[in-house]
Amino acid sequence: MESRHGIRLPALLKFIVLLFFINTCSSSPHNDLLALLSFKSFITQDPSSALSSWNALNNNTSNGTQSFCGWTGVTCSGPLSSGRVTALRLRGLGLVGTISVHLGNLTHLQALDLSDNKLEGEIPPSLANCIMLQNLNLSINLLSGTFPSTLGRLSKLAVLSIGVTKISGSIPSSFANLTALTFFSITNNYVHGEISPWFGNFTQLTVLNFAINMMSGRVPPTLSKLTYLEVLGLTSNKLEGVMHPSLFNMSALVLLNFGSNQLTGSFPPDIVFTLPNLKLLAAFYNEFEGPIPSSLSNSSTLQKIILHGNRFSGLIPPNIGMNGHLTVFEVGNNRLQAVKPRDWDFLTSLANCSNLMSFNIELNNLSGVLPNTITNLSLELQDLYLGGNQIAGHVPASVGRYYKLRSLQFSGNLFTGTIPSEIGKLSNLHNLWLDENSFRGDIPLSLGNITQLNLFQLSSNYLEGTIPATIGNLSMLTFIDISNNLLSGQIPQEIVSISSLSKSCNLSKNALSGSIPPQIGRLVNLGILDLSSNKLSGEIPSTLGSCIELQFLYLQGNLLQGKIPNDLSALKGLEVLHLSDNKLSGSIPEFLENFKLLRSLNLSFNQLSGPVPKEGIFSNESSVLLTSNGALCGGPIFFHFPACASPVVPGSSAQQRLFHILIFTIVGGFSFVTICVATCYYINKLRSNPDGSSGDNGSTFATEPYQRISYAELSMATNSFSEDNLLGRGNFSSVYKGIFSCGGHSTNWAVKVLDLRQRRANQSFVSECNALKRIQHRKLVKVITVCDSLDHNGEEFKALVFEFISHGSLDRWLHPSTDRMERLSLVQRLSIALDVAEALEYLHHRIIPSIAHCDIKPSNILLDEEMTAHIGDFGLAKIMNTGATGQCLGESSSVGIKGTIGYLAPGM
To answer: Rounded to the nearest 5 degrees, what angle is found at the Cα of 467, between the Cα atoms of 463 and 468?
Structure first.
């Protein structure tokens, strides 16, 4: 380059011009173009082709301004020749990739919305260079890492929304500089630490949302300075302590949600006057106590009251629905009461709420007859929960008017009468709970019309008749439980053909008969099948092997026979297999050794024979029960089965003669021993009963069948198994006094509840049942019935119910704890000793096979009002083998020390 005078410009001037050009480009729209192209290059998937127009080759101006200002999601300011990017909005496009660090070069950017995509990686700290930024929304992505502390430099930021991602760590202290914020939401992340008091300095905030994180500590009272705050979301964190009263004085609040924490204290009685604009009050699953403020009835704006899972007590305010605006009223799982009919007046006021959709008062202390006003609620009702109370009376037929109902829950109450057939009109119902009541009569055929039903729960009632085949119409059913009733007849093949059943099918504890339908193989997705404690006969269907998702299979307590089918080898996901108390024969399948997930196997009380496998679950003594089978042999040593003999194969004539002699000797010897035992027993019986009477030596045999009893009845009789009703505790159980009412009369029984967390509690339960079903004697504690069910938490529950022996154990009389209890006289001690001896003589010599108690001690000897002794607690009892000589032998010939280790009873 030369001047007009022909003089060449120096190289330094050329360098200065070049620097000027570069500087001009860096502050020009061209830099925005490069930042946008960089962003696109980090996007690996663009399913909607939203960025297809982002192409540097399609520029229409020298610097490309017109091109990128027309790109999808890009907003510019200024003329086309010098416009700058002020907004980038790419919401909900399904973009996959990471966020380019070069977005920080968009120095004029005011709004960045990349929400509802699938962006990964960390938030670039370089976004702090966008000093004009006012709106930053990165919510609903897969972002990880922590919050960049550099974002605290964005002094103009008004909206910060980074919720529903995977951000962890704590909130940087630099965020205290973001005093221009009006919207702050980091919901649904893994953020921890305390809520800093400096949030109270964000005086322009209208939304503050920390929900679903791991925030801890107390809620700072400085938040009460946020006079414009409309939404405060604190739900599902680890916040604790008492809510400061000033936090209930934020008059602009519309939505207040601090549920699912560990907050304590009570609500101020004038809460509705200090929060006059409140529409949502949610404090579920905390530890709040005291009454529900009656002032809530005066709110003209309140729409949702969600207070379940606390310790609120007293009455539900009678005018709670007076404003007529409530759509949700949930106060379940508290300590609320209703005793008198007027305590139910809140139902009348809620009838004013024409848009009420959810009504939940379950798990409280509400009692009395359910008022008919329950059917005056809104026709918009979708969820109705009354379970877990002491509500009596009949379910009104007009409950069928709630045609929008999705969930109907009346379980765990005292309802009687029949199940209204009108429930079959609830065509939108998804969940039906009527279990643990006293419903009688048949299962209505109309229930088969609820084709949307997913969960069907009618267990623990007194339902009779057969299972209607119309239940097979419930093609969306995933869970059915009609156990513990009085149902009879065969299992309809329609029931076991519902292919949607995936969670549980429980028909146990009824009187169902016939064979198991082969169509049961259609339940290919089922996880739990329980047909136990019925009268089912025939063989186990081989089609059961098609139910490959089974984890729990209960067929015990039936009349099943034949072999365990080899087709069950396909059930490799089994965790529990119970086939006890049947008539199964053949050998134990070897494939059970290969079930890696199997943790409980019960094949006892059958007619199985042959070798016991040694591998897999059979190597764990506590996981397998094989008692009372015909001819098992071999197996691990702890089973104490005899060794499996090599079979005698007749060959030569000498071998055949030896074989015949052996058979003759065994049969003859067995016959001779049987005749001798029978003769001795008959002579002994004549000596003890020379008059030819029945000779049971005081035995009393019940002529009526055992009464049926449910977990709910036991819980009610023992006041929810309270300590006030506790009579004593043992290694495997606790005994409570129960007061049972029938026909206007009250009866005291003793309820022995097994602690199934103990390692051998189940074995103790089986031992006691096996002993008690063989014995009845006036000097033995009389068993009334057995309860084998589920508790309110769905956990296994086992209990035995005995006659109540009023004067307690002998141990209390030998060592009285109070001066008021008189001591036993010598005559009384001698009489008690004779009673115990008489009972033991009966156990050892009057029944075949004899029974050894194995734990005789004063605490197991009970005294009635006449000071007659009765032996109880047969949890360690053993049925004696015919060859036993005073040892505590099980039916499997196991020998071991039983009873209270190191115990020596004091002298009487």
So the answer is: 120
- 641 burial (CB, 10 Å; 0-12 / 13-18 / 19+) is buried
Q: How many CB atoms lie within 10 A of CB 474?
A: 23
What pLDDT digit, counting tens, does each position of 338-373 carry?
Answer: 999 999 999 999 999 999 999 999 999 999 999 999
- Count of H-run helices and E-run strands, the chain: 10, 56
DSSP-assigned states of every residue in 532-570: -SSEEESBPPGGGGG-TT--EEE--SS--EEPPPGGGGG
Rounded CA separation 488/296 (Å): 51
**Residues 436 and 416: beta-carbon distance below 8 Å:** no
Strand-pair partners of 99: none
Angle between helices 11-26 and 29-41 (to 10 degrees): 60
Element (H, E) at 529: strand 528-530
Binding residues: 752
Check 113, 383, 788, 855 and give the catalytic one. 855
Whether 320 and 289 have beta carbons less than 8 Å apart is answered as no
Residue 678 has pLDDT above 60, yes or no: no
pLDDT tens digits along 297-321: 999 999 999 999 999 999 999 999 9
Place of tokens 């995933």: 478
Active site annotation includes 835: no
Six token digits for residue 92: 């909900």
First to last CA, the chain: 129
Distance CA 248, CA 236 (A): 19
Q: What is the pLDDT, as a whole number, of residue 167?
A: 96
**pTM listed for this prediction:** 0.69
Nearest residue to 907 via CA among 821, 841, 808, 815? 815
Between residues 596 and 893, the one the model is more confident about: 596
Q: pLDDT tens-digit profile of 791-843? A: 777 678 888 898 888 888 888 888 765 544 567 888 888 889 988 998 888 88
pLDDT of residue 136: 97
CB 249 within 8 A of CB 227: no
DSSP state letter for 221: G
**DSSP state, residue 134:** -
Which amino acids are annotated as binding site for ATP, given as ranges?
A: 752
**Which tokens in the block code for residue 871?**
């032996």
Q: Residue 205 corresponds to which tokens in the numbers above?
A: 């905030």
What is the pLDDT, as a whole number, of residue 680? 44
Backbone angles phi, psi at 717, to 5 degrees: -65, -30
3-state secondary structure of 231: strand
Cross-strand bridge partners of residue 6 = none
Strands 84-89 and 796-803: unpaired
Cis peptide before 849 (omega within 30 of 0): yes
Contact yes or no for 532/560 (Cβ under 8 A) = no
Find out whether 560 and 582 touch, Cβ atoms under 8 Å: yes
Would the pLDDT of 65 be above 90?
A: no
- Contact assessment for residue 491 and residue 469, using Cβ atoms and an 8 Å cutoff: no
pLDDT tens, position by position, 67-122: 788 899 999 986 655 678 999 999 999 999 999 999 999 999 999 999 999 999 99
Q: Write out the two tokens for 19.
A: 């620097």
Tokens 């109902």 — which residue? 405
For the chain, the maximum distance between any two Cα atoms, rounded to a whole number of angstroms, is 156
Identity at 855, one-letter amino acid code: D
Q: What's the CA gap between 380 and 700, in Å, rounded?
A: 60
Name residue 441's beta-bridge partners: 463
Question: What is the C-alpha to C-alpha distance for residues 749 and 754, in angstroms, rounded to an integer?
Answer: 16
Ranking 7-21, 211-225, 522-536 by mean pLDDT, the lowest is: 7-21
Q: Which of 333, 336, 378, 335 is nearest to 358 (CA)?
A: 378
For 644, residues 6+ apart whose C-beta sits below 8 A from its C-beta are 610, 611, 633, 634
Going by C-alpha positions, the residue among 83, 84, 80, 185 that lies closest to residue 132 is: 84
Counted residue by residue, the chain has a size of: 908
Cα–Cα distance measured from residue 680 to residue 846, given in angstroms and rounded to the nearest whole number = 12
